[in-house]
Design goal:
With about 280 residues, the protein is mainly α. Among the domains are: about 40 residues, no CATH class; about 140 residues, no CATH class. Helices cover about 60% and strands about 0% of the residues. A two-stranded antiparallel ribbon has the order 1-2.
């Protein structure tokens, strides 16, 4: 995509037709779609779960249930907690493409349904223990399910039990921001933008949120810009990589690789919540 973007920057007439991956045509030649599909299949095979992995029969519902319950424990109302469940499903799709218990061929550190490291997983487990009794009062059925999967995962890395991996991952990195969902939803009414928000590095994002004008808040730290590039934002082509700063609106718009992923998560959430 970098090479193609450099080409279309020099020769705009080479910008082709739309593609099935919803990548801006200036970045992607639609003729290579079959090659990208083969590449995706290869990665899926390489990232297959280990033999010890403990799947869930309801992986998507689990993510939504955990995100919603955590938000309720943070004191959010039912509507806002439901938004936390939807966002949690978006996070799951962004981290794994919606596949549970996967490995990671690009990293020896990050594993499982929310792609956490050992330290992150333990930190999330500790934070979960702190709200466990409150959750038991709010949702006894969920608490019973938690006991069941804790017991089931007793002899394995908890990152390879789908329930505990999602639970610990959400508690480690995302639950702290759930309490700010009312402000986030007000400043970013678009639901896909809300999912993107939770994929951004927390510290500067919190500062932008506190500024009162999130979308125009500008990032200029070389370290943060480097983080964005490492996460496929301002990554492709010399012009994008040369950016030394960006507003949060520009950052959200540049997260186009996530659009298709989050649309899938949104559709799955709507399916889960549809009346039976």
């Amino acid at each position: 995509m970098s090479t193609y973007k450099d080409l279309t920057d020099a020769l705009p007439a080479r910008i082709g037709r739309p593609n099935k991956f919803a990548i801006p045509p200036a970045y992607f030649d639609a003729d290579i779609e079959p090659l990208i599909e083969e590449y995706g299949t290869l990665f899926s095979n390489l990232e297959a779960p280990p033999a010890c992995a403990q799947d869930s029969k309801t992986p998507y519902k689990d993510v939504v249930a955990l995100g919603t319950a955590i938000a309720r424990a943070k004191g959010l109302d039912a509507e806002t907690a439901a938004a936390a469940g939807r966002i949690s499903l978006g996070i799951f799709f962004a981290e794994t493409g919606g596949e549970q218990n996967i490995g990671n061929v690009r990293s020896k550190k990050y594993k499982g349904s929310l792609q956490t490291g050992v330290r992150e997983d333990r930190n999330g487990r500790r934070k979960w223990a702190a709200i466990k009794s409150k959750l038991a009062d709010l949702d006894p059925a969920l608490a019973a399910r938690d006991v069941e999967d804790e017991t089931r995962a007793k002899r394995i890395d908890q990152r390879y039990n789908h329930w505990t991996a999602v639970r610990n991952g959400l508690m480690n990195a995302h639950a702290g921001l759930f309490a700010q969902l009312p402000s986030i939803r007000k400043m970013l009414p678009d639901e896909i933008d809300q999912m993107k928000f939770f994929q951004l590095i927390p510290t500067p994002t919190r500062k932008a949120l506190k500024s009162g004008d999130f979308e125009v808040y500008r990032i200029s730290s070389p370290r943060i810009m480097g983080y964005l590039r490492n996460n496929s934002i301002f990554t492709f082509g010399k012009a994008d990589r040369a950016k030394k700063s960006a507003t949060y609106r520009e950052i959200l718009d540049a997260m186009w690789l996530y659009n298709r992923i989050f649309a899938r998560a949104q559709a799955k959430f709507d399916e889960i919540k549809a009346p039976e």
